[in-house]
Amino acid sequence: MNPIQSNIDTNSTEYAENVEYMTDYVAKVRHIESQIRLGEERYRARATKKGKLLPRERLAHLLDPGAPFLELNSIAGYQMMGDTDGTTAGGNLIMGIGFVKGRRVLVMVWNYAIKGGTINTATNKKNLRLQEISFQTRLPIICLNESGGGNLAGGDGPPDPWGPLGFISGGRVYCQQAQLSAAGIPQITVAHGNATAGGAYNVALADYIVLVREQTHLFLAGPPLLKAATGEIANHEDLGGAEMHASLAGTGEYLAENDADGIRIARDVTDQLPPGAGRTLLRDKEPEEPLYAKQELMGIVPTDKRVPYDMKEVVARIVDGSKFLEFKAEFGSETVCGHVYIDGWRCGVITNNGPITPQGALKAAQFLQLCDQSNTPMLFLHNTTGFLVGIDAEQNGQVKHGSKMIQAVANFRPPKITIVVGNSYGAGNYAMCSHSLKPAFCFSWPTARTAVMGGAQAAKVMTIVTEDRYAAKGEEVPEAVRKGLEEQSLRIETGMEIASEAIFTSAHMMDDGLIDPRDTRHVVSFCLATIFETPNRDTEPNSFGVMRL
Fold it and tell me: Which string of b and e fits 445-456 if b means at least 16 CB within 10 Å?
């Protein structure tokens, strides 16, 4: 393999403008995340009074000190469901992949400090995504639970103001908890506080349950609902306290004295699982640092998304030794394919320097088959306006060859990881393995744009349709109609630009999170190691999951 020769001028005005834009956008994402933490911090006095740790303090107690933690979907729900500034974003869950007692695990911490950890649409979507990752990777799940159940105040917007849609997706969470247990994937839950109604099932369906004395309150109906429904009067401890569940109902296996003790027990339970799956994992090659600094990733993508750039410049800054064995370089050159190593892991790369032509689709489909044959993972780096359109493209089989590429992506058996770097429009979004095509992980850069098409193109299409309708009748477009079309075009273009930009799409969970471009190599390497460990988790499936009989 030969190193990629970079042509980036790091002293140019354009490069400096690109760096400024990217730096500002990363800061904007970090600000949203800090707003979520601010929302948590407002609860500190009440948490201290109750003898509780804040959610992120619980997370810190759980994770191995100094070990990496990859947070997922950190800004889910931003400016949705009543959130205005980020302080109630995040889906009331902190979710990610980290290490506990040397074992790689999935972690879910209910953020009780925001709206009591109640369940909304974003909560269910994050929970379902966590379970999907667990099914794919066989990672155990550790849950630090404290939830008020479904948000009875509504707030999910006009399509689902009181939760019937969420009710169904919540049921899917419970179904998959049972299926995870049957699949031999352990679930360890610490019930730190309220676990009411649906929240109670989140706890009770776990394989191992840790209860916290005088904090756990686990019941289908709390005292107010019980009184309203039946007239029966009960206090929290008799109805669902930790001691009752440990000694009478038998709902939990371990009784802890406080938050920290409960987390200690969860760590000890994790320690009795099979040893860390990465213990015998060997990289394909000794890792090499790229020839070019990761800081330079901040200046490659132009601020104007219509300006072309060479995606091999991105590849050069994330792969070992900046080395790239390009596949069929002269054929369908707008689609770039090749072999690389990333932190010692061999990997294929498919990326774009323009629209996907029939030749590009054919090349990508062939490359996918070769990598499937050699069990080589694939990294997709999005930067395309979609499939090329026009008479020539159609007559050369664009639909047919594009379908072949999508089929190859969908049925590709080795691991798939996706980074949306720039444009990701139309069916090109599917062909490049967006969330729709089920990659193991999908992340976005701040410069990502995901849509059916660009806003200007969409506006122009609507104008042309109207003009053609009048032309078919042999009429001119009235001035009033033309003025309305101009106003409509502005609305469409503005609306689509807002709805396609990275923070909006990430808030709606069209990816697993926004990453700083400088972290790309580390994130991809972390995800590859996570996936490669999967066959070595060593737990075994059974028929119905673990049940408390």
Answer: bbbbbbbebbbe
Q: Structural domain of residue 483, as residue ranges?
A: 453-499
Q: Which of 458, 427, 440, 452 is nearest to 505 (CA)?
A: 452
Residues 6+ apart with CB under 8 A from 344: 283, 284, 285, 286, 287, 320
- Whether 327 contacts 337, CB under 8 Å: yes
Is 74 domain-assigned? Answer: yes
Q: Are strands 187-196 and 208-212 parallel, antiparallel or unpaired?
A: parallel
DSSP states of 191-228 as a string? EEEEEETHHHHHHHTSSEEEEETTT-EEESS-HHHHHH
Q: Residue 188 pLDDT more than 70?
A: yes
pTM over 0.70: yes
Torsion over CA: 80, 82, 83, 89 (sign): negative
Q: Which residue bears the tokens 């193991």? A: 440
Q: What is the tens place of the pLDDT at every residue in 120-149?
A: 889 999 999 999 999 999 999 999 999 877
Q: Determine contact, residues 72/93, Cβ cutoff 8 Å.
A: no
Each residue's pLDDT tens digit, 196-247: 877 888 999 999 999 999 999 999 888 988 899 999 999 999 999 999 999 9
d(CA 143, CA 112): 13
pLDDT band at 462 (very low <50, low <70, confident <90, very high): confident
Residues 477 and 370 in one domain: no
Predicted pLDDT at 158? 52
Provide DSSP, 253-264: SEEESSHHHHHH
What the block records as the tokens of 429 is: 């979004």
Give the pLDDT confidence score for residue 160 in this predicted structure.
53
CATH number, domain containing residue 318: 3.90.226.10
Phi, psi of 471 (to 5 degrees): -60, -35
Residues 299 and 228 in one domain: no
